[in-house]
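DATA SHEET
Item: assembly model
Revision: 1
Owner: S.N.
Input lines:
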Amino acid sequence: MSESLIFHFDVDGEDFTSAGQASVQVKKNLRRLGISPEIIRQVSIAMYEGEINMVIHAHGGSADVVVNEDKIEIILADKGPGIADIELAMQEGYSTAPDSVRSLGFGAGMGLPNMKRYTDEMTIESKVGEGTTIKMVVKL
Amino acid sequence: MTVSEICEKCGFEPVVLPEAEREVNGGYIGDLLSWVMGRAKADSAWITIMSNINIVAVASLTDVACIILAEGVTVDENIKNTAEAKGVNILSSSLPAYETAVAISGL
């Protein structure tokens, strides 16, 4: 691959049941490119957690996956409420998700920690009232 | 051991088995989806009582070999169709999660 490949997705903020469509599509695309199963697992779980977060907290957003020769970048952007205390949000078990989401098995406070766990680099830019952009890198 | 062998030998009910001959290596029990994605290993049998549509995406992305619904939990047609389309195996066990794991472990 001499040039990078970009996959863009709009994440629907209203439809909880379809959350994950972008991640599943990315998984298929990466498989076609011959990326190793473990890398695909890392990228698609990190992305799914991000998608779920955007559905729970931010009424949706956008997801871009950029496949380069040496790394895969995932950029998730939303215009949601922002994260007031990023350090706190990164702690395993900390969650502000409502009970309705918890009954579906989400909201355990493991989303952001999982995104960090499965990626080599992760940066969060967030402004309260304006939105959040998360960039993740998985090295190939 | 394959998913279909586990299904037959443990007396579980096959719900959908689009990839019945997939090898199973280990297991994980959990209902909180992010815990499953953070801890379950690829090719595991994932035992859960969670039965909403999101389990199919979680199983697919985590690359587990199958979902085993414990306690006789059932899923609706929409979930079966989605699982079939995404190649996600689903079994159902009438036993609680612990006994389900014990049954597999005894094979």
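QC remark: Chain B touches chain A through 20 residues (CB under 8 Å).
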